[in-house]
Amino acid sequence: MRIDDYNAAKALTEKLKENLPIKTRAGKEFLKTLKQKGVNADPDREFEIDFVDYSGDEGGIMCGLTQPNNPESKEKYFASLTHLKIDPNHPLASEVQAYQRQRIRKLMFQNSRGFKAELMTLDPKPNKNRGKGFGK
């Protein structure tokens, strides 16, 4: 099952590249990753996206992040756009949020082990060619 609409994701990637740098904050998953690495995981900490590229269904739209409030820091982070909170005043904020909702929904569906997910992975079996009547 495809997660992203390839053409839509590439188009959004190109729009984001034209609007760099973009202010952002870490989402819940990115904060967990920062905390695991022993880095200050402050949800109000601002980052700037200075690199954007599409990495396919595996990672989605990937972003390179720097810390604008800490110019002496040479640390650079990479995260999926799905795990970031874009500045709501940014002109592409609504498109980014729509992409994030769609991607998260499809990832959750893919990761669910429910009956519907199993049905979506099964190939339909062709009907058997049966004779007419009893025993024929």
Secondary structure tally, helices: 4
Q: Specify Rg, calculated over alpha carbons.
A: 21 Å
Biggest β-sheet: count, sense, barrel?
5 strands, antiparallel
What ranges have pLDDT less than 50 throughout 5 or more consecutive residues? Answer: none
Strand content: 15-25%
Spatial order of the strands in the main sheet? Answer: 4-3-2-1-5
Question: Helical residue percent?
Answer: 25-40%
Class based on secondary structure composition and strand pairing? alpha+beta
Give helix and strand order, one letter per element, not per position.
Answer: HEHEEEEHH
Morphology: elongated
Instruction: Summarize model confidence as the mean pLDDT.
Output: 84
Give the tally of β-strands.
5
Distance between the termini: 41 Å
Descriptive overview:
The chain is an alpha+beta fold and 136 residues long. The protein is 35% helix and 20% strand. It has a five-stranded antiparallel beta sheet. A hairpin with a 6-residue loop joins strand 2 (46-54) and strand 3. It is elongated, with a radius of gyration of 21 Å. The model has no long low-confidence stretch (mean pLDDT 84).
